[in-house]
Amino acid sequence: MKNKLDIKTAVADYAIMLAGAAVYATSVVVFTAPNDIAPGGLTGVATMLNHMFGLPIGTMVLVMNIPLFIWGAVENGISFLTKTIAGTVFASILIDVFTPIMTAYTGDRILVAIFGGILNGVGLEMIFMRGGSTGGTDIVALNLHKHFPYFSTGNLIFVADALVLIMVFFVYNSIESVLYAVVTIFFSIKVIDTISYGVARDNGKLMFIITDKYAEICSMIMTENDRGITLLNGEGAYSGKPKRVIMCAVRPHQVYKITNTVKSVDKKAFIIVTTAGSIKGKGFITKTGIGS
Asked: How far is C-alpha 116 from the geometric centre of its chain's CA atoms?
């Protein structure tokens, strides 16, 4: 029975990731690439290479990700990369498949930037919510964060995207292309945030994890998910044995990934997930309204 459930879960994961990759590819093929908009990340770099040399965007994204996959496997193990590779391959192949068969929209560029960003965000979040990613700056940021933990993964991704936007100006020789790319990135982030967090940006999930392997699990959650942890002292009412309880405030989309992390270390771990109506503090909403 358990194996059947695992298979069904895996099939659902990859089916939703494939659908997300199709939405993401549509945003690139129909909206951003034909209108000289390169919205950050390796897809943005591949879009510029396509503009300059006619190289296929999807193929270039995949080629540029190969060394990052190797780096990620060295740093985090091959199991960490499984869904990242799948998400990247799905998106890369579909971009090249859709390019000759989909009609590009070349109307109002502000509409292009807005709807390109919306579809970009929807597609990426469908991939993220099943534990995948499209590689690129995600891998770079995570690996660098391991060696420089005082830089958050969000800030590292922001720096990488900023560098791509600087390249956009020189490749297209147009400040407008940079501004439209910023609009696309803005709407993409807003869509991802809205799907992941809901309308209120200070909401989230509170996870309580009871496990004998708390040290290893704590390390993996802090390293792979960039989330802080509080350890609580507990005691089993029936056994009378002392227990350590992991308490972790997370974003809704991180619950799935953290649950998989916990189960990969301790299949017997007891996990409680509850909704937190409001979470204040570092990593969520601060007094200035800035959070990650």
From this structure: 18
